[in-house]
Amino acid sequence: ERRVVTGVQPTGALHVGNYFGAVRRCVRLQDEGEDLTVFIADLHSLTTKQDPQLLQENILDLTAYLLASGLDPDRSILFAQSAVPRHAELCWLLACLATHARLAHLPQYKEKSAETKEVPLGLLLYPVLQAADVLVYQGTHVPVGRDQLQHLQVAAQLVKTFHHRYGRMFPTPQPLLPDDGSDRILSLRDPNKKMSKSDPDVKSRILLSDTDDVITKKIRKAVTDFTPQVTYEPTSRPGVSNLVALHCLAADKTPEEVVEEADGFTTAQYKKEVSRALCETIAPIRSRALQYRARPALLRDVLRHGAARARKRADDVYERAAAAVGIAPPA
Ligand code: ATP
Ligand code: MG
After folding, report:
1. Hey, whose CA ends up nearest to atom 25 of ligand 1?
2. Which residues have C-beta within 8 Å of that of residue 19, sequence separation ≥ 6?
3. H or E stretch including 281?
4. What reaction gets catalysed by this protein (predicted)?
5. What is 3-178+295-325's CATH topology?
6. How many CB atoms lie within 10 A of CB 262?
7. CATH 3.40.50.620 in the chain, residues?
8. Using 50, 70 and 90 to split pLDDT, how confident is the model at 329?
9. Closest Cα to atom 26 of ligand 1
10. Where are the beta strands (DSSP E) in 147-283?
11. Would you say the CB of residue 242 lies under 6 angstroms from ligand 1?
12. CATH 1.10.240.10 in the chain, residues?
């Protein structure tokens, strides 16, 4: 039996990397009839400084964009992570099995902790909470971007350690990586980095909330290189290839098709094609999201309904894990 589980942080508007790399893939899995759980990772977002009021807004925004992207709260389970305390409770059990050395060596921790002097402990625990997020539903598959692969290895290690100490309990979650290049969309300003919500340069990413005008401007300013032809060579020409990849994802084409159509175009001319394809994908999502966002009571209801369903599943798994560990049984 497959159970697909994934989360998105409410750290600001979704970018096309999040959309193609995570959200759209989830929606497709849902539409294929998979058992899908998607949570808004508000606990994770606290690992970086958040303004409380803005965070609340961001949670509703993200809910609106997930619904607008096709997530169906009746077929899939959609809720805010903090509304299901079992995530944090299982995190504690797993944290007692994780080692500081292993967590401190993870690249994402190193990158993010290098940016601040006072490193919050939550940042170190981030992958452990992620493991709990999946294991608390006995998740089997996790559709993520390539940036999360190492964290899934941590989850696999924790499952092994748990089983060794307490007996079998969890399936080992497997990554679901796409074969369409959507697992790592790059920054438009620095094609050596992935596109990120937290990148201080807003021109580095295309948001689902961007208007056609803004999309066109950002693509026009995207960093390429000094070769005018359009080719798809991700290693030697990451900038142009990233545009080709985005074009393919938006227009549902292969790199070969796109490159052939762009024959004779300079990269500057080609950028107009990319913008057009992206606008066509994004505009309908943006307008649906605005409609949802105008109905906050409906959004809150959706999250409440999802949380109730999630809680039922999580209680069951957590109670068995707690009993295996030998801590107080539920009253
Ligand atoms: P932050 O910079 O705040 O960590 P983020 O852009 O990495 O933001 P997350 O909320 O951490 O966004 O990730 C949500 C999902 O999107 C995850 O499954 C992640 O693997 C995926 N994802 C993030 N960035 C990219 C990207 N550039 N290309 C493809 N998938 C991505
Ligand atoms: Mg991230």
Report:
1. 17
2. 69, 208, 285
3. helix 267-293
4. tRNA(Trp) + L-tryptophan + ATP = L-tryptophyl-tRNA(Trp) + AMP + diphosphate + H(+)
5. Rossmann fold (3.40.50)
6. 22
7. 3-178+295-325
8. low
9. 17
10. 174-176
11. no
12. 202-290
